Amino acid sequence: MRMLPLLIGWSAATFGCHSLHGESPSEIYQRRVVPLLQSSNASSCSDCHLQGVNLQEFLTSDPKASFASLRARGWIDTEHPSESKFLQFIAKKPERSTDLMDQVRKSELEGIGEWIRASAQDPESLNATLPELKDLKLDDKLMRHARKDQILSRFIDMVWSQFERCANCHSPDRNLKQVEKHGEQMSWIVPNSPTKTLQLLEERKLINLETPMASLLKTKALGKDEHGGGIKFPEDGHTDREWGLFLTDYGAIKRAGYSTSKEIPQFDPIRTWRTGLHLRIKELPALPEGQYVVVLMHRITSEGKVDEETFAIGEGRVSKDGASWGTSMKLIEPAHLRRTHSSVDWSSALPDCRYQLRWIVVDDSKVSLEKVLGLPYTMQTEIDSLWKSGHSAAKTISFSTFKSVSALK
Fold it and tell me: Domains of the chain by range and CATH?
């Protein structure tokens, strides 16, 4: 992204100072840049990155070597130095920044900008041999992966998207009775703010950075630690794997545990948003306790045609007595909405019409969601419309309404 208006505003004044002082690039570097590197304040890099990115990674005590290194990375525009990528990176301001970081950013732009302009006019700096790109601790892909906006995007996709299941007890706009009974610690969701929610989860020690899979956020939802809300999703199912993957990745970044982008885990490209629709199926056939089952929800058009795109999915395990199954439905997020919203209006995304429900018994709960959506289903039924949100308004149907797919053909 080019940031010409911002850069032009300060470059004219700053670069004019260079001609006035008549200093060499090395002198400017010592006067304007070295104090930034020696400052006890965090660099502007930390406003956007959590691991391995700070000025000291790119700028050393040697101004010519630093300039050559930046050029080798393609971060210096020698023809238009005020438009250099390195300055654009510094100028990039996150949605939330402090007055201190704004001042740090301003000082970096002015000082480093003056040095870059002078170096771009200096034959000795321009003719220096460019080094091999082995000077940084982290590769470019890992630096991007550890950016705060990328981490937040993954948090929204994988964890925040499922907080409808937690909101009644843990969001202050819904949990007045819970707070009166158990105290303010019940409120760890910050409405409409995934950024502040992630910060609060860490502050409240609900995320364990050293042992992420033991995080209370996850173990309570699985019923492994005392939890008045009961089990929220099946162990080893899709949601459990997504939460575990985010927590493990987040912990590694916060601990500076990655050394190369090859260590970054693979993430499921399919995103889901938990709705308030609860589905219960009773009077099951003989199925073992804990059997993992998914139900796929497909829209039936006004012409009676079943849309092959899965609108929503429910995942759960058969009850202890083997007689029932229940869960909340998750909307399969349409591709055009992905990574653009911190919330999804699932009620408008799921039109009120007839739906086909497809029953699939899954032998391996760890199978990817993509594969689950492609598994053959053996039983199906239909419902006439959507139902109301909330546990008390759960849609309850008998398994006897399901018909064998082979019998229908």
Answer: 4-136 (no CATH), 145-263 (no CATH), 272-408 (2.60.40)
